[in-house]
């Protein structure tokens, strides 16, 4: 597969479809974060302080056709490292979610958006919101595209469980990213939030 990461701050307001997507999804992300934060009594100012067009980004995913779809995964199983992610997929099946130990296929719908809670909201909400493990399977005959909008903070943002007793120790987003890189290098996979369990 190929991926392109674009920080929102470098997107030109050029009327392109990527620009249009960001302009439609950014206010949606702001509304969602207000609703999710209010449920937990977390102040919206926390997100206003830590998240901006310099810290949120788009990922453009392209999954080329694959002659051995049963042997090759399009995108490896992972939880997103953001507060949450808003995904727009095309009409090709491929995205799967882990539920009760089984992979469940998400019915493709190019008229709908998918919202995935990421590890940071899981930690902040003390596990009330759950980051769902997902992957993308490869397809033999058709190419697939998706766009993911990652609502995340700056590297110095402090992530602290809002409830007591906390399930996770306090950490910065920078620490989380460093740990992820280390795990990818040493263990070959992302271990994720369980590294920060108390
Ligand atoms: O392609 C998809 O449907 C999901 C993409 C995704 O999970 C990601 O970019 O993190
Ligand atoms: Fe993802």
Automatic annotation (TrEMBL):
Protein name (Swiss-Prot/TrEMBL): Fe2OG dioxygenase domain-containing protein
One Pfam family here: 2OG-FeII_Oxy
Superkingdom, natural source: Eukaryota
Organism: Trifolium subterraneum (Subterranean clover)
All residue ranges annotated as the Fe2OG dioxygenase domain in the record: 52-153
Entries under InterPro entries matching the protein: IPNS-like_FE2OG_OXY, IPNS-like_sf, Iron_ascorbate_oxido_reductase, Oxoglu/Fe-dep_dioxygenase_dom
